[in-house]
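Here is the promised in-class demo. Please do not try to memorize the tokens; focus on the logic of going from shape to residues.
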């Protein structure tokens, strides 16, 4: 397990701007001993078989007493980290496009993480959601973090000032991390066991507990192994899980993903309009063969295609 600790670099507004904003507490200087801190490690280990998810855990610590730490991170965050992967020859691994909706900096939503005074909050990153490992070998996984933050008590009155600070990016958790990976040949039994465990975790998690990491990990696994697990979630997941499943399926741009989405249109607990949008997304970004497959499936199921996929959007 690799652990790298990094103390953040903080930049603050000038005294003139402080007087204009009228909130010296928000931008009050903090000593290195009491500044927010960032650590990162690999929770899945540095040795794995091809197809296993690679999960990183960032830990953000707020050592201050009486002030909360507001950090722009989370699944919907805009750009709090970037990832890159290079093989043993120094060749970069191509990243998958990430078309999921992101919240802008300063948004009051799922991306805004509040770390209570004198506490630590974990944040997981599934690296293989963006960087699928193509073959066995040795790799270097590089992570750059730049997460805007603000220090302030939690209240509706303080939020405009917090929002301004997050948008500006003048104070941020900044760090660079490098993790060596050793990837062995794929082991179908290991991968299937991993996929089953992830599905079980999602189904058994308590109300209010996020299962984002497990979903991201499951959908980063090879389709021939994981597609039956995706189907289980599509069939039996709650409304929130089904929406997330549809979002992940839309990223895959495969006929199997489209087939699962078609089945989800019949689910009583899902959002049919949202699933239709995701079918349109696959169609509009897919090649000719995939678009023809979607058309044929719609005709076979007597499903009315969403308007945006009734006209081809791409030329092959």
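The designed amino acids, position by position:
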């Amino acid at each position: 397990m690799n652990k790298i600790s990094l103390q953040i670099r903080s930049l603050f507004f000038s005294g003139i701007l402080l007087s204009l904003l009228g909130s010296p507490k928000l931008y009050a200087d903090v000593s290195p001993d009491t500044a927010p801190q960032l650590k990162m490690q690999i929770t899945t280990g540095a040795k794995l078989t091809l197809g296993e998810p690679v999960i990183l855990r960032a830990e953000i610590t707020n050592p201050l007493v009486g002030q909360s730490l507001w950090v722009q991170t989370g699944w919907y965050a805009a750009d709090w980290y970037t990832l890159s992967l290079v093989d043993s020859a120094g060749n970069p691994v191509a990243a998958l496009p990430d078309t999921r909706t992101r919240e802008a900096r300063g948004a009051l939503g799922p991306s805004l993480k509040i770390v209570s005074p004198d506490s630590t909050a974990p944040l997981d990153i599934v690296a293989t959601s963006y960087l699928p490992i193509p073959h066995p070998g040795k790799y270097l996984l590089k992570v750059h973090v730049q997460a805007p933050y603000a220090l302030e008590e939690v209240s509706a009155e303080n939020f405009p000032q917090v929002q301004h600070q997050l948008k500006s990016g003048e104070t941020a958790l900044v760090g660079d991390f490098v993790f060596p990976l050793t990837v062995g040949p794929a082991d179908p039994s290991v991968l299937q066991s991993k996929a089953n465990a992830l599905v079980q975790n999602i189904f058994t998690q308590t109300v209010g507990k996020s299962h984002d990491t497990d979903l991201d990990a499951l959908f980063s696994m090879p389709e021939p192994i994981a597609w039956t697990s995706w189907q289980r979630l599509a069939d039996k997941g709650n409304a929130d899980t089904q929406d997330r499943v549809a979002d992940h399926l839309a990223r895959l741009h495969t006929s199997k993903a489209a087939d699962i989405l078609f089945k989800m249109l019949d689910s009583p607990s899902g959002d049919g309009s949202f699933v239709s949008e995701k079918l349109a997304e696959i169609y509009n970004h897919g090649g000719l063969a995939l678009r023809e497959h979607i058309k044929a499936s719609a005709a076979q199921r007597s499903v009315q295609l969403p308007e945006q996929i009734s006209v081809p959007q791409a030329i092959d």
